[in-house]
Amino acid sequence: MSKELIRLTQCTMAFDGEVVLNSMNLVINDKEFLTLLGPSGCGKTTTLRIIGGFVTPTSGDVCFDGVRINDVPPHKRAVNTVFQKYALFPHLNVYENVAFGLRIARGKNSRLSKAEIDERVMEMLAVVSLKGFEHRDVSSLSGGQQQRVAIARALVNRPKVLLLDEPLGALDMRLRKDMQNELKRIHEAMGITFINVTHDQEEALAMSDTVVVMDGGEIQQIGSPEAIYNEPVNAFVADFIGESNIVDGTMISDGVVEIFGRKFKCLDKGFGENEPVDVVIRPEDVDIVNVKDGMLTGTVTNTTFKGVHYDVIVDFKGFKWLIQTTDFCPIDSRIGIKIDPDGIHVMKKSQYSGMFGDYSSYSAEYDDIGDAEYMPEEETAEVESYEA
């Protein structure tokens, strides 16, 4: 059984009277890789800063190993942080960047000898696969290498927790994927707790033991990547984690849900008879069949080649679904679909019901991109401000 390391109890944070974190309760276990996931402004970075001691919650308690640490300053907490901007010292080489924290500690009457500092720096460079880079100028390193120097510098003091604030945000897509694997490897090698903040769903699913999905300063769902993806609790989580078709339905009885006037078998139970529900169907769980064999039939409105599959937008009675398939479907063609019971997930109605899951805007977005005169609203505002 995992040992509890950090507990946030009823933590609220307000800035100038505006609540950005609302009564958060969260338990983080020792040696866990936990990711705080959500859109900008959801409170995930504020949560990280509370754990790190950079801000004190307006109310609530932060406990570390069972001890309340609200008033403990950052440098006295057993945590260290890696930021999106690595903040390396440009006048120091790789070795000295990593050794910096140890030398500061040594200057404060630490018992570390020069030999011990050297041993720990070289140990960390080996962990982050930078052995042999110790005399390199940090400005000569790639983005991924600079990130690993920042990680080594954060780990060399042997914290119990490493906080990662959008650590992959400055990297290109290919390097981000490589560094996801690198961070998982480093986590396993160090055997400490990693707490990661990101808005990237793929990153959260790929690296984490536990994902905490946040919105509006509140936790929406906590679970394993598999549980978050396959069993979302509401329409926000279903939409934010991957692509989803989210439609109105009625739970006729246990194992039977009605969509568009047709009854579908599902695996969900425990709802009231004829209870209105949200139904989520992932694009990859829909099989395209001949019209005569379809549970539902619709018209293809858009087909986009994505490399390993096609993204197909299909109109079902005015509601547009995204279907991912290896079969090419011409625009305006009629198709049927089949969905297995385990491809249907039923959710309680929530404040997010009716806000997500319809791909009516999908084709329009592609049309806008192809329009030379098109300019997103935020860019238009910037131009108007500049001209004024």
**CATH fold topology of the largest domain:** Rossmann fold
Radius of gyration: 25 Å
Residues in helix, %: 25-40%
Low-confidence stretches: 363-388
The secondary-structure class comes to alpha+beta
* Total tally of structural domains: 2
Q: What is the CATH C-level name of the largest domain?
A: Alpha Beta
Number of helices: 10
Gross morphology is elongated
Intertermini distance: 62 Å
Secondary-structure topology with pairs:
Layout: E1 4-15, E2 18-29, E3 33-37, H1 44-52, E4 59-64, E5 67-68, E6 79-83, H2 94-107, H3 114-127, H4 143-155, E7 161-165, H5 173-190, E8 193-198, H6 201-207, E9 210-215, E10 218-223, H7 225-230, H8 235-240, E11 245-253, E12 256-259, E13 262-265, E14 275-281, E15 286-289, E16 296-305, E17 310-316, E18 319-325, E19 334-339, E20 345-348, H9 360-369, H10 377-387
Parallel strand pairs: 3-8, 3-9, 6-7, 7-8
Antiparallel strand pairs: 1-2, 1-4, 4-5, 9-10, 11-12, 11-14, 12-13, 14-20, 15-19, 16-17, 16-19, 17-18
Helix pairs in contact: 2-3, 2-4, 3-4
